[in-house]
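Here is one chain, start to finish.
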Amino acid sequence: MPVSKRLRYEILRRDNHTCRYCGATAPAVPLRIDHVVPVALGGTDTADNLVTSCEPCNNGKSSSTVGADLVADVAEDAMRWAAAMQRAADNLLEQERPKQEYRQAFLAQWNAWGRGEGAARLTFPLPAGWKASIERFRTAGLPSWVWEEIVDTSMGYESVKAENKFKYCCGIAWNQIHALQAEARSHLTPASSNVTRLDTEDPEALAVEAAHLLWGQEWATVLAGPTPEQAAEFRSTAYEALASGRTPAELVQAAEYGAWFATADARQALQHLEDQRTFIDRYVAHSVFEHAWYFSHGEAPPKEVLETLWLNCTQLYEAGAHPVPVILAAAAAGLGDTTDLYVGLSAEQHEITGSHPRLLHAEDIWAHTWKKTSPDFTWPTAEERTELRAHLEQLRQSASYNTLDVYTAAAKAGLAHATALDVPHPHDAAEQPPTPVRLPPEFAPGGSLARMPADDDQAAPRLTGDGRVCAPASSD
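Its structure:
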């Protein structure tokens, strides 16, 4: 609350209308009533914390404290409190200085990269929580000088989009931490006194103790402690995680993540483990596709192709798809000059992506045959693919056709570098002997692309435009 006029008068009268800091008196200088211990540092509006001050001294003092010899009659408790607050502020500043220096080391290297020249130059964006992420790496023991190599590696990898470059940096940084931790362990001698013998056959209790041991050892290599309270919290939350359905294996794997992220909550450690797995899984599919495309084309895929592949993979991951079939489908797509994922996926996953596996398989046969018979081994153009897909879609929506007839027609069209399929009607095909077609080796029996994509409707004898291209060959 503001100082009352009555109290102001009493303070001026007590100090004989004289500045307590410099001795100046009125009317030579304007006088003010000043808080010895600033309100910002916990000072009060009582008489034992108020003195007379001239305007120059009051303006120069700001929110700092003054020497006790100048205001000897101010309450000792107030002076001690002000000194304690000042020490706390100084300690906080000392604690923040290493964080700021580490953060600036990263930021200097990050801002060394950008796009454009002169005033139009833009640095790569950083996510909202980048400071907290960098602090985790500092507490985990990653030296600041390592960021130069990490950032340069991420920026030099053009296939990583601008908005994902920080995530890519974090992935590299965690790999560096793993290497550092492995090196640190090699210098440690196991202490038999720290090994606890458990005479129990309870698998959950064994898992909790194993996770606790790993978490404690990892914590001690990067942080002080852990304290007994933190150890008790880890055990209790570990049992809660197991009770919620998490497996003992997951708990043990997540133990190190708890130490790296400086948390004693085993449930948070499990969440960090899942986040890291998701990050790795998505980039594995992305990387496998890129290598397969390079093997098939002799050059890296264009940026727009990688972006489309990333969106298709993300769509499957968000629907709960396991990483392995997505990675395999990405490899097949890269080898086949397409971003459509269908090889090895289930019928439910085909519904998620809106793909027709038989249609895509026919397109694969056509595209590979086209490339095999091209003088310079080039793939069909995007326009030629669009024309073929339009023709396949017409077949899918029209009358029934035999699956093998469609694949045979696709191979013939590829050999002729045509985009239209000459598929006979089933009744017409029954009256004519089959025409032999020589397929590329990968489509021969046992070849890498000969197996049909998984689908629940392969046993259907005929299909008439219900979302699939054709049916297996009739037994009659």
